[in-house]
């Protein structure tokens, strides 16, 4: 793993940059100034840029949110999200996995994530007892413990209701607070015996679709993100190089109090994810 202080050393090596959003560009609040500067410089250098997020929101919604946080949409080429991929499959509702699944869906998600079911053949229902499918966009409230979902999940599993997980992230750092995401709910559902279909990083589809839209060669494209089990592991599986933002989700373990990479970074990374192999690492997303 090559230790870097910023992205300037990668400009000549790559034509395409696939950028994570949460933990890389921002931490729940305004876009980080150093990140905005780096995106501006990459754009000025003529690089192809995609913002690829595990949010269950659709790409246009993400773009508007990022605009409000301070990232103009004309600085990157397009957004692509786990929600986009999930919505495409829900809209088609075909293939072996969807065979035999009825068209009534219980949508578990915050009120700010309403976009997964409109435009699909699935009718939303308010009771899990009436559902054929559980669509998971995350906890409906940030203050709920994982245990509060057990009764809902057991009721669904008793009826063999499968789950679509539209955000594999298990947690994010939201302005300094670790917050549970849809991936944690999906893991609990599986642990109770439920069936789950995941969309987004690190699972197949999202990297391939993003690379196809970027139009850059795989060997000239790098994935940038703070998630070892999502951004980095997914890049590895897709055959793409990756740059780990060590000061994101795992900042307490991978970055010193003075903001530098820890001395034995490789061992610290392996302790978190034995399979993730970032090619590069920086303390934060900066030029």
Automatic annotation (TrEMBL):
Gene3D superfamilies the UniProt entry points to: HAD superfamily/HAD-like (3.40.50.1000)
InterPro entries: HAD-like_sf, HAD-SF_hydro_IIA, HAD-SF_hydro_IIA_hyp3, HAD_sf
Assigned GO CC terms: cytoplasm
Top-rank taxon: Bacteria
Entry coiled-coil feature ranges: none
Gene Ontology molecular function terms on file: phosphatase activity
SUPFAM superfamilies found in the cross-reference section: HAD-like
Protein name: Haloacid dehalogenase
Provenance organism: Thalassobaculum fulvum
